[in-house]
Amino acid sequence: MDSGRLIFNTTGSGAGQMLFLECGVGGPGGGMFHRGGGRPVLGLEEGRGVKRPFFTSPDELLEEEYYDEQLPEKKRRLTPEQVHLLERSFEEENKLEPERKTELARKLGLQPRQVAVWFQNRRARWKTKQLERDFDRLKASFDALRADHDALLQDNHRLRSQVVSLTEKLQEKEEEEGGAGAAAAEFTADVKVSLAVVEVEQAAEEAAAFEAQQVKSEDRLSTGSGGSAVVDTDALLGAGGGLAAVDSSVESYFPGGDDHHYSDHCGGMAGPVDHHCAAEFQSEEDDGAGSDEGCSYYPDETAAAAAAFFAGHAHHHHVDDDEDDGQISWWMWN
DNA sequence: TTGTGTTTTATTGCCTCC
DNA sequence: GGAGGCAATAAAACACAA
Q: Which of A7, A62, A122, A249 is the S-S candidate for A20 at Cβ 3.0 to 4.6 Å?
């Protein structure tokens, strides 16, 4: 796949398309041949390889007339019919075996290479869309969690105020009634002890949960295939207890992961075909309905950041008992 | 018409797998 | 080592506002 690669001219929709050979040297900005007159011959205006028919003999290449007749062909878009068939094929299976590629190319009047390129680009678009959807879902989950967290803090604050107020009233009453307040004093002490016990238990419980969560995250981060960071979304979304809003039936794609691995759920880039992803799969152009909905993909860094964030947030939430700042690292989302 | 942003097609280089 | 995949990128094609 180096220089001397093929370029396919899709002119002439369907049969009779010309096959071009690129003679560019190296990559973008690579060598450029010029013929008299300063017109780029082997190399487009900006140094890219010029395209000429693939089945051109070396002699032909040396004929100057040839270049006068064979101006570089422009890149052509596929026809709607071709795209439609490719989309349907992608929907069935987003990987392309050689036989299928050849068959598709034959049906569409394209070169196999074009079909392969189309699938490659289509997979890239699919992945981008998935990332966007995953981000939206996680953000929604986070918003719900934060709202829940804020509500709990308020509740906590209100209840504490109530306890303080009632305790004070009891003490006042105790003072008014003198010695008769022994029982009340005992009750007050009980209330305080109970409160303390509840707080300690709660703190211990949450610390344990956080620790477990942390260990899980670290495991994932360190053992993911190829160093991939994988977020255990179940754990992430479940540990906080506030993410019930998340539809657990919606899968996410985290490369290198186990449960949510793209390969598992989407056929190892086999895509939306054999899971419920397929149900919602359409072309991305009609995005409203969510073409590639269902499976998700996160790059390692994102997963790691998300894991760290959620773990940090959970920790913050559970361990810091104050009604604190409530200032979560929002930059994470922006 | 033109400038600008977006989408699509294609290339390159690197990586992994067999 | 070859085949195929992916990320990054270039550039043509297209859409659209001014």
A: A7
| Cβ < 7 Å from nucleic strand B | A 1-3, 5-10, 22, 24, 26-28, 30, 48-49, 75-78, 83, 113-114, 117-118, 120-121, 125, 226, 284-285
Cβ of A276: how many Cβ atoms within 10 Å? 15
Residues 79-108 of A with CB under 7 A from strand C: 95-96, 98
| CA–CA distances in Å: residue A180 to residues A164, A168, A171, A184 | 21, 16, 12, 8
- A76 CB inside 7 Å of strand C: yes
CA dihedral (A7, A10, A15, A18) in degrees, to 10, reads -40
CA of A208 vs C1' of B2, distance in Å? 64
Backbone region of residue A220 per phi and psi (left: phi > 0; alpha: psi in -120 to 50; beta: other values): alpha
Q: Which two tokens stand for residue A89?
A: 């094929």
3-state SS assignment for residue A108: helix
What secondary structure does DSSP assign to A267-334, as a single string?
Answer: TTTTGGGSSTHHHH---GGGGGG-TTTT-----HHHHHHHHHHHHHHHHHHHH--S-------GGGG-
Nucleotide nearest to A268 (CA to C1'): C5
pLDDT tens, position by position, A285-313: 444 333 444 445 444 444 444 444 444 44
| Alpha-carbon gap, residue A8 to A199, rounded angstroms | 71
Q: Is the CB of A69 under 7 A from strand C?
A: no
Say yes or no to pLDDT of A280 above 50. no
Question: What's the CA A23/C1' C7 distance, rounded, in angstroms?
Answer: 24
Q: Which amino acid is at A55?
A: F
